[in-house]
Structures are given as structure tokens and as C-alpha cells.
UniProtKB/TrEMBL annotation:
GO terms for molecular function: tRNA (guanine(26)-N2)-dimethyltransferase activity; tRNA binding. It holds the Pfam family TRM. This is tRNA (guanine(26)-N(2))-dimethyltransferase. PANTHER family: N 2 ,N 2 -DIMETHYLGUANOSINE TRNA METHYLTRANSFERASE, TRNA (GUANINE(26)-N(2))-DIMETHYLTRANSFERASE. One of its GO terms (cellular component) is nucleus. SUPFAM superfamilies: S-adenosyl-L-methionine-dependent methyltransferases.
Length: 625
């Protein structure tokens, strides 16, 4: 039986009863049960990852060229004696302040087509590898280093094979999995997908151990129990991985410590977590144990808080080793979260970590919240933050007088690099303009909607409100979202939607301004008598939160008369917040490894018999390979 991951339809049956799944560039052959994990829900995840790794590869080439250009300009400057004078002590001193060589280098290279540069390096790499394999004595120049990618929890290796086919300038893709049957299946699929086995290498082993062994570079990693080496002997490589992909079944927490050490300086970590019940606050004690952070149970902003908790965990683990993270893009998708971060070596930036991590004070009476950083900078040193009356009155909510509960610590700095996200949107909108292999991607329509919504998001304003939640608190009808957001902007505040929640409001406006807007809305749209009677009082609790909020006079008046051509009412066309394409759209059951072993062996024996080979013949063939 064959299946297409792009549309999820059966297209026929195979005689050996295996399942054949085609996903863009790669075709996978699975045993006909749930033996090796595959979930078509994750096609978007893989398409998104390919897009981000392509951009990361271009950025690495750009940064390498800029450093080389800077070095060249610096040499030219210091080799020119006219730029120096000799001091009384006989030392050379520049006549003027040393130029900003990096700024000059960027200016010199600003017109470079980096996509074309990557393609040129990729062509040179393929030519060099072909010459080495042919045993040529006249080898072309060795190309610059390409991407080294680790698929730490690869299962059947579909993600890795797509990386090989659809990302250019790749030197190494490591398919690693703890289960031998999964790797056996991956090797079978490698042979059937035209994959270069000198680039895509398989390994049986614990993903955490692979990360720890890679801390000193891929050359330090020992062979796996089967004797497979990380690099092919004909193409030895050095250095840590440029990209490490963590896509576990559940939490990525056990792998984070090793991953932040194994990735290169400036490399990228792609991390998925599917334990949303934990991150959203249903099991706060488990969340604290895994991520060292307390979520807000039933918090309306749970999806973004989950992202920020994961980013905090990555930052905290990296800080222990003199490293820090820079988020490139962060996504809440379906039943999981996915973040892309770069990891850099910098003890100076590690000292600033307290400015990027903080806590949320959530009112127990209404949706009001306050975000407080862990530390502040005095101009000389970093000191703990001081809580004052800006987050309430006498330690209680200024709107309802209720207590606060505290969530965190979590990442409070920006969660997206909007320059990268904007470039990703262009790539998905016009795939033919960039000459990438196997474009357009299978989920390009949904991917475009996701990236477009993220590109419009305020990434430096932590957390958000839900408009229906604000209206429900006041017992009022829900205002039109576009009108409400546009009114906030006309008051001088920044405002946006979010990529996960269609009814969310992300803004830098304080709580009192949000509630003044709601007071004005209720003034113009009075609460229905039925709603008003229902919300008069609560037994033994006195006045409701809505009554306490609405009995205050607003500090300003507004009529919610927004121009029809306001930009927030006329956004770019994109598929935002799509419905699930089918029922039961969610995670699959964990793979049945025991059944896998039996099924893979059965299929292998059948194919050996069909080929007329004996077991000894097969062993000889493997040795020759």
C-alpha cells in the first residue's frame, strides 16, 4: 500500500505489504504497522525546518565571507605606512581612529547574491566529491566547509533524507536513533532514495551521548556498536555540528544540556516539544522538574508562555558553558512547539542573561498581568529587580484588588528575528526565484500563512490577552478584533495579533489602558439585561471582577471609529489559523519497536529470497560496501 504525505490518500497496494510514503523529495518504505514512527502532521514541521536551515546556511556563508573581507581590509590598512606615525617611544600609532572594518566589509558585500554563492559552493562540493570517489589524481580545489547536521532522534530518517535532497551545501547529515530496527529501515530507504552514503551517515546510539561526544567536534565521536563512523573515511570532517535537530516524542529536556554544547559557535538548534500538557500548566510540578519553570495553570497565553519557558531552559543550560542563545523564530503549531535558536560563545552576553529572563504576575481576579525581569542594569552592574507599585496596589491587582500568582522564570526578550522571518516569507511566496531544489514545499500554503502571521507579530512584547476573555470578564459582547486593535494603535501603542491564537491581542499598552478601552466599549454597547443580572454578585464573594472594573471611570474617551483603510483592517492575504484538515489531527502512538524487529527481519528475508541471495552472500555484500 502506498500513501502520499502531501494529501494523505492511499494510491495502491504493494505485494510485500509494506507502506510506501512519499513526502516531497523522499519516498519511505515502512513495515505495515506502527512499528517506526511517522506522522504526516509533522510535514509542516519538516518544511519549516528546511526553510530555516536553508537561510541559516546562507547566513553562515555570508558571515564567513564578511570575516574574510574584514581581515583583508585590516591587513591593507596596517600594511600602509601612511596610516601610521611613530610615537616618542618608537611605537607605531594610527594617525586617525581605526576604521570600522566590519562595517566596510558589509558595505563591500551588500550586493552579493548569497543564494547564488551557496549554490556555487554546493556545485564545487559535488565536483570535489565525485573526483575523490573516482580516484582522480588531479583533484579540484577543496571547497569551503559545508553544513554538518545532526538528526539526533531520527527514527526512520525521513527528515534527514529530505535535508539531504532539499538543502544545498551540506557536508554531513547524521541519522541517529537508539533503536537498531529504525536505523536498519533508514539504511534501506537511503539505498532506495539516491542518497550519497558518504554524506548521510547512520548511527545507532543514545542521542544524549552523541551530543556529549560531539562537544570536541565530530572527529572525536567514537564508532557506534556496529563499527559505523560519523564521517566517511574518504571525507574526514572537523568541528562541531552547524545544526542540531531535536524532535523527540514528548519533551526535549533530557537532550538540551548536551545539544547546547555540541552545536558550533553560531550554530543553530531546532527543538520540538510535544509535552504541552506539562508546559501549559496541567502538571506544574513536572514542568518545574524538567524546565525549572512554573507555568500558569489555565493561563490564556499558555502557548506563548510554553515557548518562552523552553527558550529559558535553553538559555540557562547554555549559560553554564559560557554560551547564550539568540532566538531566530518560535512557533506554536497544532499540538507542539518548535523553536529555532542560534548559540554563541560570549561570556559578556551571559552576564546579561538576567535581563532576558523574568516572571509573570497574573491577577487571580481578571486577565491583567505584569512581566518583571529577573535583573536590571545600573550602568555598572547587574542587580535584582525591585517590585514597586507599577504592578499593582499594595501587592494586589489594581483593577480587582485580588492577589497575584507568579509564573516563570521564562524568556522575556524577543522570540523572533523578524529580518530572517521576512526573508523566509519571500522564499515561500516566490520559490522559483531562488532556485532551491524540490520547491515549492508540500505545505507551502499553510507555511506561508504561519510565517506571514509571525512576521506581523510583536516579538518583544511578552504574552498577550484574549479578546473574548476581556469581554467575558465584563459580561459584554466581544468587540470586533480588528477595530479593537486599530483603536489601541491610534492611542499611540504598538499592537499585533499572534500566530497561534486568532483572538489574541499582543501590545505594549499597560493593563489600565486595556480596561479603559473595555469601559468605553461597554459605554457604547451596554451590557444586556440578562448578562447584567447574571453577573451582579457571586455568593459569599461580593462584587464580581467585571463590576469592580466597570465601576471605575475611564481616563479617556474613544468612539471606536476607525478608518476603513487602516492597515490592521487590510492585512496581506494569507492562510492564517487554518482548520485541521481531518479528524484526529494530532500525535500518533509511540512506535512499537518489538514488532518492528520482527517485521523488518521478515521483509528483509523475503527480499533476500527474491534476489536469490543466501545469508552469507548478504554478509559479503555488506563487507564490500
Amino acid at each position: 500500500m502506498t500513501k502520499s504525505a502531501a494529501n494523505g490518500t492511499d494510491t495502491g497496494a504493494k505485494a510485500d505489504d509494506t507502506v510506501q510514503i512519499t513526502e516531497n523529495s523522499s519516498t519511505m518504505h515502512f513495515p505495515n504497522k506502527n512499528e517506526v514512527f511517522y506522522n504526516k502532521v509533522q510535514v509542516l514541521n519538516r518544511d519549516l525546518s528546511i526553510t530555516m536551515i536553508r537561510l541559516h546556511g546562507e547566513r553562515l556563508v555570508k558571515e564567513r565571507r564578511e570575516k574574510a573581507e574584514k581581515k583583508k581590509l585590516r591587513k591593507i590598512f596596517y600594511d600602509n605606512p601612511d596610516n601610521f606615525e611613530v610615537t616618542d617611544k618608537g611605537k607605531k600609532k594610527p594617525k586617525e581612529q581605526e576604521p570600522d572594518f566590519m562595517a566596510q566589509a558589509k558595505e563591500n558585500l551588500k550586493s552579493t547574491d548569497w543564494t547564488a554563492e551557496v549554490q556555487s559552493e554546493d556545485a564545487a562540493r559535488r565536483l570535489y566529491r565525485s573526483a575523490v570517489k573516482a580516484g582522480s589524481s588531479d583533484l579540484p580545489p577543496s571547497p569551503p566547509a559545508g553544513l554538518k547536521i545532526m538528526d539526533c532522534l531520527a527514527a526512520s530518517g525521513l527528515r534527514s533524507m529530505r535535508y539531504y535532497h532539499e538543502i544545498q551545501n551540506v557536508d554531513l547529515v547524521t541519522i541517529n536513533d537508539l533503536e537498531t530496527p529504525a536505523i536498519n529501515l533508514a539504511e534501506n530507504n537511503i539505498s532506495q532514495n539516491g542518497v550519497d552514503p558518504t554524506v548521510v551517515r547512520t548511527r545507532v546510539g543514545d542521542g544524549t551521548m552523541l551530543c556529549y561526544e560531539s562537544r570536541n567536534g565530530v572527529e572525536a565521536v567514537r564508532p557506534d556498536p556496529r563499527g559505523n563512523t560519523i564521517c566517511h573515511p574518504s571525507f574526514p570532517l572537523k568541528g562541531r555540528y552547524d545544526v542540531i535537530d531535536l524532535d523527540p516524542y514528548g519533551s526535549a529536556a533530557p537532550f538540551i544540556d548536551g545539544a547546547v554544547q555540541a552545536v558550533a559557535d553560531g550554530g543553530m538548534l531546532n527543538v520540538t516539544c510535544t509535552d504541552m500538557a506539562v508546559l501549559s500548566g496541567n502538571h506544574p510540578e513536572t514542568c518545574f522538574a524538567k524546565y525549572r519553570s512554573m507555568p500558569i495553570h489555565k493561563g490564556r497565553y499558555l502557548h506563548e508562555l510554553a515557548l518562552r519557558i523552553l527558550l529559558q531552559s535553553l538559555e540557562s543550560q547554555a549559560n553554564k558553558y559560557g554560551r547564550h542563545i539568540v532566538p531566530i523564530a518560535s512557533f506554536g503549531i497544532d499540538f507542539y512547539i518548535r523553536v529555532f535558536v542560534r548559540v554563541f560563545d560570549s561570556k559578556a552576553e551571559v552576564k546579561k542573561s538576567s535581563l532576558k529572563i523574568g516572571y509573570v504576575y497574573q491577577s487571580l481576579g481578571c486577565p491583567s498581568f505584569h512581566v518583571v525581569p529577573s535583573g536590571t542594569f545600573t550602568g555598572k552592574s547587574y542587580v535584582p529587580s525591585v517590585i514597586n507599585n507599577t504592578i499593582g496596589v499594595d501587592g494586589k491587582c489594581a483593577e480587582t484588588g485580588k492577589n497575584f500568582k507568579i509564573g516563570g522564570p521564562f524568556w522575556t526578550a524577543p522570540i523572533h528575528d523578524l529580518e530572517v522571518v521576512d526573508e523566509a516569507v519571500k522564499r515561500v511566496e516566490n520559490p522559483r526565484d531562488y532556485g532551491q531544489p524540490h520547491d515549492p514545499l508540500p505545505t507551502s500554503k499553510r507555511l506561508h500563512g504561519l510565517l506571514t502571521t509571525v512576521s506581523e507579530e510583536l516579538s518583544d512584547c511578552p504574552l498577550y490577552y484574549l479578546l473574548p476573555d476581556l469581554a467575558s470578564t465584563c459580561r459584554a459582547q466581544v468587540p470586533p478584533r480588528g477595530t479593537f486593535l486599530a483603536q489601541l494603535e491610534e492611542l499611540g501603542y504598538r499592537v499585533s495579533a499572534t500566530h497561534k491564537e486568532a483572538d489574541a491581542i499582543k501590545t505594549d499598552a499597560p493593563n489600565d489602558v486595556i480596561w479603559d478601552l473595555m469601559r468605553n466599549w461597554v459605554r457604547l454597547n451596554p451590557i444586556a439585561a440578562k448578562r447584567e443580572r447574571k453577573g451582579e454578585t457571586e455568593p459569599n464573594k461580593g462584587e464580581t471582577a467585571g463590576m469592580l472594573i466597570l465601576e471605575k471611570e475611564p481616563k479617556f474617551q474613544c468612539e471606536f471609529k476607525v478608518k476603513k483603510n487602516h492597515k490592521l483592517l487590510n492585512r496581506k492575504k494569507a492562510t492564517r489559523y487554518p482548520l485541521n484538515p481531518e479528524a484526529n489531527w494530532g500525535p500518533k502512538a509511540r512506535a512499537n519497536v518489538t514488532a518492528t524487529m520482527a517485521n523488518v527481519e521478515e521483509v528483509s528475508k523475503r527480499k533476500i529470497a527474491e534476489a536469490g541471495l543466501t545469508t552469507s552472500n548478504q554478509d559479503d555484500a555488506k563487507k564490500q560496501k
